[in-house]
Amino acid sequence: MLDKGLFELLGKEKKYVGYITIIDLIGMLANVAVTACICLSIGLAIKRSDEVLRYVTYIGIALISGIIKAITIWASGKLKNTLGSNVKRRVRSDAYNKLLDLGLSKGGQQTAALTQMMVEGVEQLDSYYSYYLPSFFNAMIAPIILFVICVSFRWQVGLVLILALPIIPISIILVSKWARRVFSKYWDKYTSMGNSFFDNLQGMKELKIFAADLAKQQESAVKSEEFRVITMKVLVMQLASLTIIDTVAFGAAAISIVFSILGALDTVNPLSPAVALFLILISAEFFIPMRTLASAFHVAMNGSAAGKKLKVFLDMQVPKWGNTSTHNPESIEVQDVSFSYDDERFVLKNVDMKFKPGFNAIVGESGSGKSTIVSLLLGAHVPQFGKVTLDSVLVRDYDRSLYYKKITCLGYDTYIFNESIRENFRLAKEDITDEEIYSVLEKVNLKDFIKNIGGLDYVILEDSENISGGERQRLALAINLVVDKDIYIFDEATSNIDVESEAIIMNLIKKLAKTKIVIVISHRLANVREANIIYMLEDGLLIEQGTHQELMDQKGKYQILHDEQYDLEHGYMEVSINA
User: In this predicted structure, which of 95-104, 151-160, 256-265, 545-554 has the lowest mean pLDDT?
Assistant: First the structure.
């Protein structure tokens, strides 16, 4: 019922739970005082007493207690809002910082799942902290206070109430075993549906092109139905829990009321009408804290399920980087590296590569391990065997921020933010001037284009929808050129773009290679003919290496793949000319 791990996640905000619990107890005592004063006033009226001062005293105490009750309700709500906002702000900040600390790998989390966890998951956790926890502590303390009050007047009433009380938490515990399974599945179904929706939304164009939208619609409908079914199970569980608790609470209250009435009719030790009425009203209120707790139970289970996933994420081991400073690197190496993403299937096997200043290339068919090499060079992953070094020092031994000041990567899917062109450049260099931006845009032949579409204030839409693929790649390259780096990685940077853009990018790559370490990953071998060294990968193995001419002379896999591409491209050109 009380998750210690989630309670510890509160940090300094624990004090607010204590404040809320104390204020709620004060409010409960104020309510008891109001009830007592009303009962005493009714008792005086039954006796037809004319003691005006006592009437005024009871009514005055009741009004003061009522004001205190109103203040406690306001203060409790205020503190709950403060607790909730503080927790949400801090947990989201911690989660965001954790995401930054995890770096390029993101801890293996999907974007949609991360979004749901940081938005909806934190909201559920807020309900757990601000609603359930105060109810839990209030339900543990308030019945004991009310029991002492009841026993002081009639022990039979107090005994009935205190004996019935444990049935409620026992029933909650029994239901919780069922609830944990249900809520675990509930959150999994929720994130699964969210991932599917986000994935389909991103791939809407492809779904329409391949007429696969109906199939995906049906798949989404299945996931939605699964989520609806699990939601109904949650509601059934909640209804069953409340039914059991209400049966116990109202049944025990009814028995206590009977004992109160019998006490008033007792001839030996009769209760006064005022006391009997007071016990009747207190019996009805005795189970309210526990019933409030039961009502919050489903919130607790949902918040607990979301909170545990958040805690697992927050407890993820952050990649360890050192504090070695970098200098002008002379080489970056992959030494006898074997790597697996799942510790089962190795995507790289005993690979050795050395990249020096100049034009370096990695080629191979899809799935050969080219992009995995990139992730290792960027420090996103650490190989299970072998090592990745910069000037003979392990990459992860460097200070991460200093290391990233030396290296950059331009991929086929480099992200351009939904900001103005100027703001995108400022991400790379905060104090960049407009003249510097136009200067680098001229290098990628985009200066006139940018001026014609509205200048540097032109806002790039989400997923770069308002510029072409080639323009996006050239803009991404320009942003990468703003800050001087020592190592430039181009991961399929010329994939799926027009011939003009490809030529511009390749010319810039060759210029950079005169003074920098340039690593080009390409499926198109025509782009790497001028490379100083070409590494040929196949199924995670380094099968060939050398210059273009050396590899052609070997008449191995590289030569076969090169000739196939050459025949295909020139055959297409001949068909186009004849047509």
Answer: 256-265
Tens-digit pLDDT profile for residues 175-184: 666 666 666 6
* Mean pLDDT across the chain: 81
Two structure tokens written together for 564: 């196939």
Tell me which DSSP letter residue 497 carries. Answer: -
Q: How far apart are CA 12 and CA 94, in angstroms?
A: 14
Selection from 347, 395, 402, 394 nearest residue 371 by Cα: 347
pTM of the model: 0.67
- Residue 579 pLDDT exceeds 50: no
Q: Residue 248 corresponds to which tokens in the numbers above?
A: 């116990």
Using CA atoms, how far apart are residues 158 and 141, in angstroms rounded to an integer? 15
Q: What is the 3-state secondary structure (H, E, C) of 131-187?
A: HHHHHHHHHHHHHHHHHHHHHHHCHHHHHHHHHHCCHHHHHHHHHHHHHHHHHHHHH
Q: How large is the angle between the packed helices 155-164 and 133-153, nearest 10 degrees? A: 150
Give the number of other Cβ atoms within 10 Å of residue 74's Cβ: 12
Q: For residue 491, what pLDDT band results from cuts at 50, 70 and 90? A: confident
Beta strands 487-491 and 385-390, pairing class:
unpaired
Instruction: Indicate the SS3 state at residue 199.
Output: helix
Edge-to-edge strand ranges of the sheet holding 346-355: 346-355, 332-340, 385-390, 393-394
> From CA 302, how far away is CA 307, in angstroms rounded?
8
Quick one: which of 372, 382, 375, 386 has its CA closest to 322? 382
Residue closest to 510 by CA, chosen among 530, 483, 533: 530
Strand (E) or helix (H) holding 352: strand 346-355
State both tokens at 350. 């005993």
Give phi and psi for 531, each to the nearest 5: -65, 145
